[in-house]
Amino acid sequence: MVKKDIFEVFFRRKPSMILVALRNNSKAKYGSVLAKEVDCTYSHAVKILQEMEKNSLVKFEKKGRIKTIRLTESGEKIADHIDQIKDLL
After folding, report:
1. 2 falls in which pLDDT band (50, 70, 90)?
2. Could you tell me the sign of the dihedral formed by the alpha carbons of 62, 55, 15, 4, in that order?
3. CA angle 87, 21, 30 (to 5 degrees)
4. How far is the CA of 24 from the CAs of 27, 37, 41, 48, 51, in angstroms?
5. Average pLDDT for residues 73-86, to the nearest whole number?
6. Confidence check: pLDDT of 13 > 90
């Protein structure tokens, strides 16, 4: 198996890559930027992010009409572990 394939055995690729993408950038991000980074549609990214928000992994911050996304402390830890596992595989 190729390295990419074995990772997908253990994790759903898009949600895990969204967490890692948020972790790798210290600034808050927009949903559209994350969608492009992980190669999925905006609506799919938003659906994933809403599930993550329900589970306290990400936090939406709204300033006027702009909504940014940040990792919570739990989300940060999980993203770090996912990244470490990805490197091991």
Report:
1. low
2. positive
3. 175
4. 9, 11, 20, 18, 20
5. 91
6. no
Q: Are 72 and 56 in contact (CB under 8 A)?
A: yes
Enumerate long-range contacts of 56-61, CB under 8 Å, 24 or more apart: 57/19, 58/19, 58/22, 61/28
What element of type H or E holds 60? strand 58-63
Has residue 40 got a pLDDT over 60? yes
Distance of CA 73 to the CA centre of its chain: 13
pLDDT at residue 54, as a whole number: 93
Helix (H) or strand (E) holding 26: none
CATH architecture of 3-88: Orthogonal Bundle (1.10)
